[in-house]
Design brief:
With 197 residues, this protein is an alpha/beta fold. The chain has 8 helices and 5 strands, in the order βαβαβααββαααα. The longest helix has 34 residues, at 111-144. It starts with a strand and ends with a helix.
């Protein structure tokens, strides 16, 4: 059976080597063919669209493989709606879905696994919401203690933005000249022109 491996980590400082090693072993142990590996680094499971996942779904539609294996269902997604849509799309293309560490398999001969899949999808979404809630509580607590939260303020001459813009310098040129990101320049310009109005 031609198999696609999918892995995901939420932050760029994490890696997928543990997941990949286990999934490669799972595929090899069954004598299946590892058709392709799809890896997303630094993407939340709550996002329906991720570069590697989008490629996987497009390749599934082209029947480039017969099965998708993931380490855990939350690696594939943390939204019940998105998981149902994506696994439904895989099923429509005749592609099987397996979460190896949870013994989930959407093979038609396994209805109990499909029920468990729905339950675990709901749990994954719940975990995502709890993480988000804890993060917001942590930010509020830090602010209450007087800690500065977020990106540090950029120090630069904001009046130079208007001056350079009036001289016909492009946004990118202004950003390079002042040594700040392009979005910082356009945001500062917008704020200054709104306050002047």
């Amino acid at each position: 059976m031609r198999t696609a491996i999918y892995c995901r980590v939420s932050t760029t400082d994490q890696n997928c080597e543990h997941q990949l090693a286990e999934l490669r072993d799972y595929v090899a142990h069954r004598g299946w063919t590892n058709a392709k590996e799809y890896v997303d680094h630094g993407f939340s499971g709550g996002k329906a669209s991720r570069p590697a996942l989008d490629r996987l779904m497009a390749d599934a539609a082209r029947r480039k493989f017969d099965c998708v294996v993931v380490w855990k269902i939350d690696r594939f997604g943390r939204s019940v709606l998105h998981l149902n849509q994506q696994i439904g799309a895989l099923a429509a293309h005749g592609v099987r879905f397996i979460a190896t560490s949870q013994s989930l398999d959407t093979d038609q001969s396994n209805p109990a696994s499909r029920l468990l899949l729905q339950i675990l999808a709901a749990v994954a979404e719940f975990e995502k919401d709890i993480i988000k809630e804890r993060t917001l509580l942590g930010v509020r607590a830090a602010k209450a203690k007087g800690k500065v939260v977020g990106r540090p303020m950029r120090v630069f001459r904001r009046d130079q933005i208007i001056k350079l813009r009036e001289q016909g310098v492009s946004w990118r040129g202004i950003a390079e000249k002042l040594g700040v990101p392009l979005s910082t320049v356009t945001d500062a310009y917008r704020r200054m022109t709104e306050s002047a109005a």
